[in-house]
Each structure stands twice: as C-alpha cells, then as structure tokens.
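Entry type: protein chain
Record version: 2
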Amino acid sequence: MDFKHIKFSREVNADFINTLRKRVNAYFKENQISRHANTEMIVKTFFMFALYFVPYILLMFNVFDSIWIVLSMWFLMGIGMSGVGTSIMHDAIHGAYSKNKFVNKLLGRSIILLGGYHYNWELQHNVLHHSYTNIHGMDEDIDSGKLFRFSPTQKRLKHHRLQHLYSWPLYALMTLEWMTTKDFRQLTRYHRNGLLKSLHKSYTGLMAQLIALKALYYGLFIILPLIFMQAPWYITIAGIVLMHLVCGFALAVIFQPAHVVPETQFIEQPQTGTVENNWAVHQIQTTTNFAPKNRILNWFIGGLNFQIEHHLFPNICHVHYRKISAIVKKTAKEFDLPYHCAKTFRRAVINHGKMLYHLGTKDIYPAV
C-alpha cells in the first residue's frame, strides 16, 4: 500500500470544489458563525459523556439490585459509547470540534475510553478512508479480508452468497474486535507495509503505547467492574459484552449505508497512480446521505447522515452540515454531479442490505 503515489486529477471538474468552497466560506462569513462547535455541540458533549459514564458510576456504586436494571445500564452505556464516538471523538479527531488543537487532541483521545486506539483510527479513517474512499486496496473500510465482499472490485467467494444474512450479527462485534485484536493486527500491518516508516513513526514506540492504553481500558471497564460490582461475575461480563454489541451494531449501521450501497461507485487502485477524477468529485460519487429531515437521528449520530458534506468538509463541525447541505446539493447540480440521498434511515439500511445480497450473488452489481 503506497498511498503517497496515489494522486487525483487536478484538472477534471476542478472548478466544482473551488466554487463550493467559496460558497461554504461565504455562508460562515455572512452569518458570522464559527466552523467549529457551538452551544448545541457543547451541550451534546456533556450529554453523551453523561450517557456513557453516569450508568458506569451507578453500577460501580451498586445502586441497583435488579439484574435487569444492571443490564439496562450496560445497554445505555452502549448507546452512550456510540454517541461519544460519532458526536465527539469523530469531530475532534478530524480537528473539527474546536479551533484549539489541544481541545481536539484531548477529545479525540476519547476513543481510548471506547476500547480503540487513536493513531490507528487516524490512519484508517482520516488518511485512508477519507482520501481513497471506495478504492479497493486503499480504503480499509471496504476491506474485511475474505469475510465480506463490500466492493464489486473484490473477488466473490462462495460464502458471500449468505453475507446479507450473517453480516448483521457480525457487525455487532465491531468494537469487541477493536478492544481485543484489531488494533494490534492493524498496527502491525501498517508497520509491515511501510506506512509507519513513511510517516516517520516508531513501531516499537506505538506498540508500547497501544499496550499501555489497552491495559488502561481493560482496567477501567473489565477489572474494576469485576472487583467492585456486586452483581455475579457472569452478569458483569454479559453487561460488558452487551455494551459492545449495542455500540458495534450502531456504528456499523451508521457508517455502512453511507458508502456500500447501489448508488455509490467503487474503483480499483489505479495502475498509473492517478485517479481519473478530481478528489472532490470522487468523494461525491462514492458517498451518499440518508434521512436528511430526521433531526433526532442527525443530532444523535453526529451528523453522519450528511456523509457527503462530511467527506467534502471534514474540518467543519457536524452541527453545520444540515445547513450547508443545501449549498452542496445546489452546486453539485450546477456541475451535473450526483447527490445521492436516501430519504429515510430505514431506506438506507435496506439499500445496504440489497447491496450485500447482490455483491454476494453476482460478480458485477449494476449501479442505479
């Protein structure tokens, strides 16, 4: 994986992103508002952290005797965990939460409290996924090895014919994999393919940091609960697993319908080293929005239903996406570019399921 040698055309549709940036910049200037977090975002930050940690504190102080209430607290923690990830960590790690780099760094590290590793996320998400969206061999979000076929550019295997059935329960294991094996395998892979070296990072140093952070997470969310919670140990373990299943499933059904759907495009890694499209055009062709009028969903999932706006402007806080979406849609239409959007979240999930089925049963999936 030599991402430094993959470039996008600077000539094809270059005027689109230049025009769009001018219009978006004018929106913030004319309305005299910051591109970063506002009061709504700050309130949401406290709410999401509270949703994650208040149940944890109540459990640690053994406030509840009922096993069902105990498990419901772990369930709420799973919802809060996903909320912290999508609404706070995600913006911060993109540098979009605040103009203060320290605030972004601090809140971006909240991924550690979710069982993940910030450096791996920055590479996988910020660098590879956002730069090379839906490019086979570059975007790790569509590369699950042989388990799933997320792109028509991947080889179809026999078991893929059932992926539209087995994918949903396996999606729920996402953060369990994070907290156990994925980060270690991922960091080692980045070392072996030369990615760490190209970024002048020490594999040994990063691995030591990763081990220390995992120990911190295990201590806070496994060892301490087993020591201090009066519930039977197996209930505590069940609660921890439940929390991760809720969060993992939520994250999967938020991110997957944004890229792995019939409307979006997929391409092979270019042999010449140059993608034919301009980067911004590539983003708009490989991404789709969903449920633009669902304000509750938009609030809770960190504006990730406006995935097009996020990919074009990852350094803008998500609380502004709904407003600037009208600008993006209008500009795309002027330049005869697509602006994919499923009307509801339900439709987006159905579209993803449809894509899983066709990728699992057909070698080529005709775009709609």
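Comment: The first strand starts at residue 7 and ends at 8.
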